[in-house]
UniProtKB/TrEMBL annotation:
<dbReference type="InterPro" id="IPR036188">
    <property type="entry name" value="FAD/NAD-bd_sf"/>
</dbReference>
<dbReference type="InterPro" id="IPR002938">
    <property type="entry name" value="FAD-bd"/>
</dbReference>
<keyword id="KW-0560">Oxidoreductase</keyword>
<feature type="domain" description="FAD-binding">
    <location>
        <begin position="4"/>
        <end position="162"/>
    </location>
</feature>
<protein>
    <submittedName>
        <fullName>Salicylate hydroxylase</fullName>
    </submittedName>
</protein>
<dbReference type="InterPro" id="IPR050493">
    <property type="entry name" value="FAD-dep_Monooxygenase_BioMet"/>
</dbReference>
<dbReference type="Pfam" id="PF01494">
    <property type="entry name" value="FAD_binding_3"/>
</dbReference>
<keyword id="KW-0503">Monooxygenase</keyword>
<feature type="domain" description="FAD-binding">
    <location>
        <begin position="288"/>
        <end position="349"/>
    </location>
</feature>
Amino acid sequence: MRTAVVVGGGPGGLAVAGALARSGWQVTLLERADRIRPEPTAVVLWPNGVRALRSLDLGAGLDAIATPLPDGGVRRPDGHWLVQPRQTPVERLPVVVHREDLHDALIAGLGERVELRTGVTVRTVRAAPGERPAVGDGRHTYEADLIVAADGADSVIRRQLAPEATLVSSGCAAWRAVIPWYRAPRLPGPVGGEILGAGYRFVAASLGDRGASGGSSRGGIHWMATAAGAPRPEPPETQLALLRRWYAGWPAPVDELLAATDPADLVQQEIRELRPLPRAYGFPTGPGAVVLLGDAAHAMPPHLGQGTCLAFEDAATLAALLRESTLPDAVMAYDRVRRPRAAAVVRQTRRMSAVLRTRGRLALRARDAALGTITPRLLGSAAAMATQWRPPSASS
Ligand SMILES: Cc1cc2nc3c(=O)[nH]c(=O)nc-3n(C[C@H](O)[C@H](O)[C@H](O)COP(=O)(O)OP(=O)(O)OC[C@H]3O[C@@H](n4cnc5c(N)ncnc54)[C@H](O)[C@@H]3O)c2cc1C
């Protein structure tokens, strides 16, 4: 039986571990935290991410927890439309999912064949030609035919195998929260869309009512605010007060959502990205291989909401290629297919970053004028990039 060690119990690691196990691999999943638990926020999955999950046979689990996200357009802080909401066919709409629901669905997909080891921090990787690949935590060595590095943006495995890829700040910080259903304000009309200001951005999405069919079992409203600059060192209460000051006077429902947020709901994060991307995603070792997957391979700012989607694409692609070819061929094909794909998404994300970072009155006026033409084009090609992706030998 072929064996794999997956490092990292984030969405990418869980998706690929389950897929390999369902294809008959014996899988060990190593996670440094004591429990596999995501942060209490939500994630937007575009049609490519949804299609990848379907091709991994996780579509039914997803349908039970996903809420469609209608196109809410893009506004300025003064309420003027930069991009009007569009009527979008439902199959092109993204969905929003509570990360805890998503993790539950991915863990349910692991089945019996995955040995889960938590509290294991991988520190070393062995990927020398002719040797069986392995990772170690200083006490144990875990050998396998295939090692999947799904250990996130800070990946120790990538640092050793692709040191040219450096994790750098994207120059902004993000705050997110899910306001639980029992504290969520009752808002007129659907919650959605985004608002762009000088270096500031606010997006919101409804997770539906608690227990509603086809929605999050947790329900509530998710929002995300990004601001140019570094993360704030103050306690969450002060961060929330700062957010209310920065976003004062922005169109509804920004103030209602910030007012309904408890400091304990708040998750602050520095936005970071890999520059440049790794030169390789696959490292054959003779009898086996190591591959990079998810943020370990292509950490990027969340402006187009594609990080998790790409991690699922990686998992679906790797699983499909391994079903069809030998391990060395599959790893070479994975590298060939995934690097240009990730590079294309990163290029689009960087263009969006440039728009979002614009500050200063003149630049802002130019941005607002240009946004009317650039943003629809940018969002249009990002949407096309998301809807057109197909997994190899797609079953859906
Ligand atoms: C503010 C924000 C908003 C976002 N919104 C979206 C969105 O709407 N849509 C979208 O598609 N993406 C979004 N993303 C991106 C998304 O969160 C990431 O791309 C995604 O989590 C990557 O999954 P992963 O499994 O590759 O890595 P991670 O989620 O980082 O998981 C890595 C796992 O590996 C474990 N680990 C790390 N090091 C080790 C080690 N040495 N040994 C053992 N285990 C280890 C970690 O504990 C963790 O469990 C957003 C990101 C941010 C910051």
